[in-house]
């Protein structure tokens, strides 16, 4: 039986939520907002690719893929609501969203079904790496964050851990060759870096911290920490014989999802 669950979660963001929603580390809000802004473009792309593969899948994998689609659709819908509050405050976000729309539209029109599914698998390996990194640092990262925004990111990352296998299994069921997955991994990293840089820069300008030494130091420390601990795992993910289940999951996210389900049931 599939372990994936469909959870209906809505986050009540206050109308006056500040784009810099972290009281002690505004640069964390800047980089996290840049990731959130990508979601309404990246996630519909992987949803569309997986949905088109559904008729070719059987049994439990088909059910997993259906639930994976439902989770990703929920993620991007919640980020979309959050992003509107950010876009209303930070100059240049509309231009960045236009670039994202054109980038994922171009990928969809010009690449093959195999590339789309490989990109989904690569993006999931990246999301899983981010989840593992955040889990190790979540105390310091979110202690002074707006609690609703913290819940948005932690819920999203928890479900990324939960569905880490699905895109990989869908790709394997349809293709299996590792070279296209390696190519898609490089493209997905490049797209992520470009938009994380653009979004974070716009956020830092808004916060008047573009050249702030403390902000630059923390962003560099987070980036190098991630590159040394999680980037190798992402690259291993495209090697023959590797499966996402080879990585042991941080158990904290499981407990977090149980808490979310209890809150929803109360
Ligand atoms: Fe997601
Ligand atoms: Fe995902």
Could you describe the 3D structure shown?
With 266 residues, the chain is mainly α. It has helices at 26-53, 59-87, 93-110, 113-142, 147-162, 166-174, 178-206, 213-229, 231-236, 251-265. The model has no long low-confidence stretch (mean pLDDT 95). The site of one fe (ii) ion (FE2) has 5 residues, from helix 4. One fe (ii) ion binds at residues 72, 124, 127, 160, 163.
Structural class: mainly alpha
Biggest beta sheet attributes: none
Q: How far do the termini sit from each other?
A: 26 Å
Bound compounds, each kind once, are: fe (ii) ion
Integer average pLDDT: 95
Keywords:
binds fe (ii) ion, mainly alpha, about 270 residues
Strand and helix map with partners:
Layout: H1 26-53, H2 59-87, H3 93-110, H4 113-142, H5 147-162, H6 166-174, H7 178-206, H8 213-229, H9 231-236, H10 251-265
Bound molecules: fe (ii) ion (2 copies).
One fe (ii) ion binds at residues 43, 72, 75, 156, 160.
């Amino acid at each position: 039986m599939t372990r994936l669950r469909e959870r209906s979660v809505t986050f009540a963001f206050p109308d006056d939520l500040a784009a810099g929603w972290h009281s002690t580390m505004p640069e964390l809000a800047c980089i996290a907002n840049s990731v959130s802004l990508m979601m309404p473009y990246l996630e519909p792309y992987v949803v569309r690719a997986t949905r088109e593969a559904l008729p070719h899948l059987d049994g439990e994998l088909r059910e997993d893929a259906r639930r994976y689609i439902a989770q990703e659709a929920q993620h991007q819908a919640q980020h979309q609501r959050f992003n509107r509050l950010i876009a209303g405050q930070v100059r240049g976000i509309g231009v960045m969203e236009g670039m994202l729309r054109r980038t994922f539209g171009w990928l969809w029109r010009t690449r093959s079904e195999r590339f789309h599914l490989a990109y989904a698998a690569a993006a999931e390996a990246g999301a899983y790496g981010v989840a593992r990194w955040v889990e190790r640092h979540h105390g310091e990262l979110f202690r002074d964050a707006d609690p609703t925004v913290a819940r948005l990111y932690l819920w999203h990352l928890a479900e990324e851990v939960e569905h880490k296998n699905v895109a990989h299994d869908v790709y394997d069921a349809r293709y299996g060759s590792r070279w296209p997955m390696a190519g898609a991994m490089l493209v997905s990293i490049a797209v992520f870096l470009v938009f994380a840089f653009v979004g974070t820069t716009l956020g830092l300008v808004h916060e008047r911290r573009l050249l702030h030494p403390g902000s630059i130091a923390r962003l560099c420390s987070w980036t190098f920490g991630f590159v040394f601990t999680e980037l190798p795992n992402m690259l291993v993910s495209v090697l023959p014989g590797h499966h996402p289940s080879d990585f042991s999951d941080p158990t904290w996210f499981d407990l977090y999802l149980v808490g979310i389900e209890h809150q929803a049931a109360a």
